[in-house]
Design a protein that fits this description.
By secondary structure, the protein is mainly alpha-helical. Helices cover 60% and strands 5% of the residues. It has a three-stranded antiparallel sheet. About 3% of the residues have low confidence.
Length: 210
Amino acid sequence: MTKQEVKHIENPMSKQKLKFLSLLFICLFTFMFYVCGNVFFEEISNIDKIRDGRIYIANRDLAFGAIFFIPILAAMDYMFLLVFMEKFKDNIMKTIIKTAAISIPLIIISSVMYSFWIGSELRGYGYSYCAAYGSATRGTPSIWVKSEYYCQERAWKVRLELYEYLDKWDEINQEPSEKELNTAILTMLENNPLYRREHGLSDLKRRKPL
């Protein structure tokens, strides 16, 4: 064993560093706790939105199972809290393992079951999946629309602005006409720098207002 290895063993991580790391992990897991709860309740609110006939529904299948991830996060928070208070006991690791062993299967099973149920519910209320608004980014929602004309491939680059536009119509319990929707999408595209660059449009080539 080298002198450097002996020195490393003789000088383990200081209590201050350990407490700092513990506090850091407590903050991290508490934030994740909040995110899981928020995502779960946001997804549950989709049930009412479907029955209210909202123009579009942003659905995350895995969000339903997030509620069962919370016990794992709570156990991790508790463990690092004990480390921070210098009261850590080895048996807490057994508690975390048992919690994970119960929670993980529940996450998987509930997510799969919810995915089948919500898909059936959406189709039953006349919604159709809009592949044009899909994204390869993990965690982004699947978009379901009330009518096919809300799903336009050209609107992909401005879909976030489009969602905000449709939300405003939902707030007043009305829907835009096809002409109003097309005009709004065209205006969004013309104001989108990426779209303008791709199509070689300058400020002088903006469409005149109708």
